[in-house]
Amino acid sequence: MENCLSREEILFFKNNLEEMQSKIIESLQQTTEELSGTKCCATGGDESDLASRQQGLNVRRSISEKQAKMLEEIEFSLKKIEDKTYGICEMCEEPINVERLKVKMFARYCIGCREVVEKQEG
């Protein structure tokens, strides 16, 4: 099934996805630099200082992992825009509501199919 989004809507989503992509890449690079810098400077301090630093590192790693997953979804959506399949549900192949895409620009499923997927997953 072919996409039924207007050219303007496709351009809107493409521009927003690319902006999100660049912000995440920048954030991941910054976090990587911070994590690299903390390893060499992690000496000194008492046990609570070390525990606090370790907890901070764990939080940053967790955020980075979530951002990396989001980046994959964004890149997949940009590929779908190129393939002219963006905005089409991967399960029922019907158009995904534009309002849903505005809330979650890298949505793969319409609301009905998403509920089915969530029930199967959990």
What is the averaged pLDDT score? 87
State the CATH superfamily name of the domain at 7-86. DksA, coiled-coil domain
Looking at CATH, which topology of the domain at 7-86 would you report? Answer: Four Helix Bundle (Hemerythrin (Met), subunit A)
Distance between the termini: 29 Å
Gross CATH architecture of the domain at 7-86: Up-down Bundle
Assign an overall shape.
elongated
Q: In terms of structural class, how would the helical and strand content be classed?
A: mainly alpha
The unreliable regions are none
Total number of helical segments? 4
Helices and strands, in order, run as HHHH
List how many beta strands DSSP finds.
0
Description:
It contains four helices and no strands. The protein has a domain at 7-86: Four Helix Bundle (Hemerythrin (Met), subunit A), CATH 1.20.120. By secondary structure, it is mainly alpha-helical. The model has no long low-confidence stretch (mean pLDDT 87). It is elongated and about 60 Å long.
Characteristic key phrases:
122 residues, 4 helices, 72% helix, elongated, Four Helix Bundle (Hemerythrin (Met), subunit A), mainly alpha
Write the layout of secondary structure elements.
Elements: H1 7-40, H2 47-83, H3 98-103, H4 111-121
Helix pairs in contact: 1-2
Structure at a glance:
This protein has 122 residues and is mainly α.
